[in-house]
């Protein structure tokens, strides 16, 4: 079933635009999470970055020859515009996502999962965080483990839903933790009881892919 599902460049364009919309809607919430344990700029930073992507999207879409370049250029915008730790991390995610599908204008569902895996590996490589450090890796890594279990017989939409659910739980799991990375580290035990903002934004951003997959399932 999943082998009949192909995602084209327009799917990624729409997802990036929807992520930009999400960052506007969630900006104050993500910033308030970051105000609890960081420097209170997470939502604002991401909205600046994604505004840059949406402002340039029509040109990016026309000028890029494949999905990889569209994502790579979008990631470069995040990298250049977003301050704090999240810019380089999300920037790397999108820059590396399409590396294995260079030259393609549509990808299979399995290739799409591979792209998410590459993105997560890039975040891991760049941030060097472990599970339990109270970072976005607490959401991404359990998600990655789910992606590794994919079998072609599975329903692609339910499978991706499972990926999101596990990421969401991973974000919840940061609440009782002391931070081992970032500014929250300085708070020591005072970070306990607060959710890590990057873990929350990461599952919510991936949920945009989930929502757009569901749109595809209804066509
Ligand atoms: Mg911050």
From TrEMBL:
Alphabetical list of InterPro entries matching this protein: DhaK_L_YcgS (IPR012737), DhaL_dom (IPR004007), DhaL_dom_sf (IPR036117), Dihydroxyacetone_Kinase (IPR050861)
Enzyme class: transferase
Gene Ontology CC: cytosol
Domain DhaL: 10-211
Pathway entry: Polyol metabolism; glycerol degradation
Database matches in NCBIfam families: dha_L_ycgS
Name of protein: phosphoenolpyruvate--glycerone phosphotransferase
Protein source organism: Enterococcus phoeniculicola ATCC BAA-412
């Amino acid at each position: 079933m999943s082998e009949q599902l192909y995602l084209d460049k327009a799917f990624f364009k729409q997802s990036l635009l929807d992520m930009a919309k999400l960052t506007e809607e969630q900006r104050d919430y993500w910033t308030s999470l970051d105000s609890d344990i960081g420097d209170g700029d997470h939502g604002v930073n991401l909205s600046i970055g994604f505004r840059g992507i949406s402002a340039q999207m029509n040109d990016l879409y026309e000028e890029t020859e494949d999905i990889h370049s569209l994502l790579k250029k979008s990631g470069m915008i995040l990298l250049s515009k977003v301050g704090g730790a999240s810019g380089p991390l999300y920037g790397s995610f999108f820059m590396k996502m399409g590396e294995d599908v260079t030259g393609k204008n549509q990808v299979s569902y399995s290739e799409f999962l591979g792209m998410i895996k590459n993105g997560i590996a890039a975040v891991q490589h760049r941030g060097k965080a472990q599970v339990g450090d109270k970072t976005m890796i607490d959401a991404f890594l359990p998600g990655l483990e789910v992606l590794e279990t994919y079998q072609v017989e599975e329903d692609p939409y339910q499978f991706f839903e499972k990926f999101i659910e596990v990421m969401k739980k991973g974000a919840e799991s940061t609440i009782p933790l002391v931070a081992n990375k970032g500014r929250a580290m300085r708070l020591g035990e005072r970070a306990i009881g607060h959710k890590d903002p990057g873990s929350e934004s990461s599952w919510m951003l991936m949920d945009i892919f989930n929502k757009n997959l569901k749109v595809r399932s209804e066509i």
